[in-house]
Amino acid sequence: MNRIQTKALVEGAVFAGVTALLGILYYYMQYLGILAMLWPVPVIIVGYRNGLKASILSALSAGLIVSLLTHPFVGLGLLMGFGLPGVVMGYMINKRMNPYIVVFLCGVLLSFTMVGEFLLSLKASGIDAFKFLANLDTTFKQQLEVTMNIYRQFGMAEKDLKYMSDYFSQSIGMMKMIFPSALVISGIIFSFIDYKLTRLILKRIGHSIPDIEEFSKWRLEKRTSVILLGLAVLAGAASYLKIPLMTAVALNVSTVLLLIFSVIGVSVIVHYSRVYGERQGIPKALRTTIVAIIVLTFMQFIAFIGILDLVLNFRKLESKDPGGVR
């Protein structure tokens, strides 16, 4: 028992050092912001191999080291923003939970904790977070005015300039409204990358954890499909009827659903490109190129393809294969 505890402490210390190094590099090389996304991985590995207590200790140690060598708020921000999701994901993987649930729940958690990390990073830089957020509108307007002046110098008509100004203003307003859904989407993407990278590292050292189904077989259960399609109808109705206080909610729901339907649509295209490509002996690289061209050319129809597959089940995956996004 003592040997096992000692091994867990040693591994936790080693991975805490790796995690701290990533945090220090992130602080001194801000252009390598992707390092923050990788911060949970060592913590996840410790949690899977040695349990919840070891992962918490590893995350706290890494946060303390970063705080001592950089700025207290930087270490606290990384601990809150990425250490906590790492601890949770390590625990869930250790308990052999469904990988799709792990990625989704940890992604939602990441979307909240990243906000805390961002606010603490502003504090570490000596920036008042509330003033920063309050001045965003002013900054956007100033940037828009600079852009309009540049086009004006090139002789663009005032009518066209007004159209562009209105378009950009509406786009900025739209971006602010869909910020919550964009945050959730980015959190889930980060969670997915962390899970896949963790699985790859664990596989290298002799551990096996459940994998996400290959992309061409991604689908949704019938119950989930019905729920999402119902949400799409409700969101569309709320937007059309302009129900008070529901417009922003409907817009965010529609943004998430559009992404889900689009991903399923691309999965359908990849599935059929593989089926017919293998039948015709088309090389994988050429199939990938063809899929990319189709997706980029008919991007506006991809979500519709995903909806049709949810309704009609083109690929008949339920009868042939138990896999999918469940």
Structure explained in plain terms:
By secondary structure, the chain is an all-alpha fold. It folds into three domains: 2-128, no CATH class; 135-176; 213-320, no CATH class. Helices cover 82% and strands 0% of the residues. It has helices spanning 2-28, 34-38, 40-50, 52-69, 72-94, 99-124, 129-134, 136-153, 158-177, 179-204, 222-241, 247-280, 284-297, 299-312, 317-320. It is globular. 30% of the residues are buried.
Keywords:
single chain, 326 residues, mainly alpha, 3 domains, disordered C terminus
Which descriptor suits the 3D outline?
A: globular
Structural class: mainly alpha
N to C succession of SSEs: HHHHHHHHHHHHHHH
Q: Kindly state the mean pLDDT as a whole number? A: 82
End-to-end separation = 38 Å
Radius of gyration: 23 Å
**Biggest sheet details:** none
Got a strand count? 0
Query: Which blocks of ≥5 consecutive residues have pLDDT under 50?
Result: 319-326
Brief summary of the model shown:
By secondary structure, the chain is an all-alpha fold. The chain has helices spanning 2-28, 34-38, 40-50, 52-69, 72-94, 99-124, 129-134, 136-153, 158-177, 179-204, 222-241, 247-280, 284-297, 299-312, 317-320. Helix content is 82%, strand content 0%.
Describe the secondary structure blueprint for this structure.
Elements: H1 2-28, H2 34-38, H3 40-50, H4 52-69, H5 72-94, H6 99-124, H7 129-134, H8 136-153, H9 158-177, H10 179-204, H11 222-241, H12 247-280, H13 284-297, H14 299-312, H15 317-320
